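Running log. JK asked me to keep both predictions on one page so they can be read side by side. First protein, sequence followed by its tokens:
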Amino acid sequence: MAPLPYAALDLLLLVALLALLTLVARNFFLILPARWQPRGAVAEALRYAPLAALLAITVPEIVRDLPVGAAGATAAWADALTDPRLVSALVLGAVIRLARSALWGLVAGTASYLVRRSVQSSRRAPWRFSSARTSRPSIWRGWRRPCTASVAATPSAWP
């Protein structure tokens, strides 16, 4: 791995500026004078901004592998309903709705994910390397996917 083209002082200055930018961005509405504070519909909409950001991050990950289209939909949906992410999201929503407690929803969703994940991983045989197919770790899944391309099979080509 090649050394970074930045000096230590440059990196320290960059981190400090990014920390300052984050501090200002997160506290922007706290440092504004009272007459410039958002009112009405804007203030009401800003109440839901953290939830919207959280959903924007998690929903695409949950629905990424859901089947699209009608061809083979029954088998694909049956397989999708065993996905630990989808099952835990459904459990989370149901517990929050029934118990009216986000804490218990998070506990139940996390527990169902961990249980479903352990059951799923115990059924899967451990990955074995062969000379024809190698694998590289995936940051999106807890298991490894095979890479068959000759360029991707060499460790030096990995990012």
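And the second, directly underneath as requested:
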Amino acid sequence: MNSRPLLAAVLVFLSALPLGAAERVALVIGNDAYPDAVDPATGRARPVKLDNCVNDATAVRDMLRDQLGFPAEGIIFGQDLTRTQIYQKLEAFKKAAAGSEMALVFYAGHGMESLDGRENFIIPVDADLVGAGESEALLRGTAVNLTEVLGYVTKATGGPKVVLLDCCRDRPAKRTATGKVAEGGGLAQLPEDQIPADTLILLAAAPNKQASDGRGHGPFTAALLANLPARGQNLLDAFFKVSDAVQEATGKQQIPWLKFDGSGTIFRQSALVTGNAPVAATPAPGMNTAELAARDRQIEELKAQIAKMARESTGRADQAAELAVVKEQLTAIQEQIQSKPAVTMTPSAFPATQPSPLPNQSSPIAGRAEPLAVGAAAPTLKSVDQNGKEVDLGKALSSGTTLVYFYPKADTPGCTTQACNLRDEFEAVKAAGIKVIGVSADTVEAQKKFEEKYSLPFTLLADKDGAVIKAFGVPTIMGTSLASRQSFLVKEGKIVWRELKATPKTQAKDAIAAAKAN
């Protein structure tokens, strides 16, 4: 396989909560059309044009739109961009992603590290590649510092962010006249202070190692396209699968490198594809032998990973946090096996491999195949509010008009936008005769903090066991108990309107319009 002469980088920032149309925003850039680099000493021209970066960017854009729920209008796309155009796209991205729960940036193209190997730069098509390889000033003046890009991401969203770098970068000064690598290679290690909060970074290859350009798509991008749309995996699971696929495709010549800020909990609570798990035709009282065998393999792999991480640890806090995450995953799998008796069933009864329950999370809520339809009777179960008081939904929904809206998690960006929209328009909502009940799988304590922090004037149900979410048939994120963002208008005990992709910024207006129409 041929290697890209410089960086083919991919930056992807994902969040995994189920989002409305305005909540999934992406910036996708692919740069191929670089002019030849001319050696000023010999006058020899070296082609540095890339073959697959625009293909990679186009394919990722299409995957986001067609398979991962990004609206077309939420994807900012560019190819063969100059430095000025890259900054223009970054500004547009920051504006579009403000308050979003998912921010994704994909960059494929050249790049290089600084001469001291401490900083990383993405390269526009109008950059002076030869000069940048010899002069730090020219590099900074013609390229875009990765730290700046990460700064735009930090400002764009307070939600989870994932950074994927598909790179095979070298300083041009380190290359021979034929363009082959003389020494070094790959992406410089990212300093700890360059990784923003709640950000996961996956490099296509280990620091200072090269990544293949492949044919049509590089193996890293090919692995992204093949694995990210799969259901039943949180963010960490998804990117571990990407890593495994790259290693298999390259015979372990290319081994991706994963890094994240914080404990990793936010990534274990997030998924790329939302929706309920398919229900097996024949329910089983415990694990079948095929499932147990798959879990045994997972346990052995995690034990080996823990041992390796322990051997290589230098005592840094981030290493300890990563090790703790893997140990939690191991404990969760072991506890699940201990809680289920082994049973013998045909292999078709369960998938050969299934995602592990997230540590510190409830099992996925099965829910209904479809959310409650218009005309259906509202559920009559009981729950508990943010004050710990029992709420009889059957009684509360039997008279008048009530907006029951479901949201993933208290005090996250989109959920806060939605709640504050209802708060700010609450007088108009009351004037329309609408009561409001918000529902999520948060604890009573979390709902109370949410209410007090934003002065919310309505009821919040702490549906920790998922009973209300299930009763309304609201889908949950695979592997978590987090509810999709859906809204129902109940009048005299009947569903008269529903919004299966509720928009946080217009929740009050949409509910008022529905009440007037019904």
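Observation for JK regarding the second prediction: Residues 1-22, 169-185, 275-289, 337-369 have pLDDT under 50 and may be disordered.
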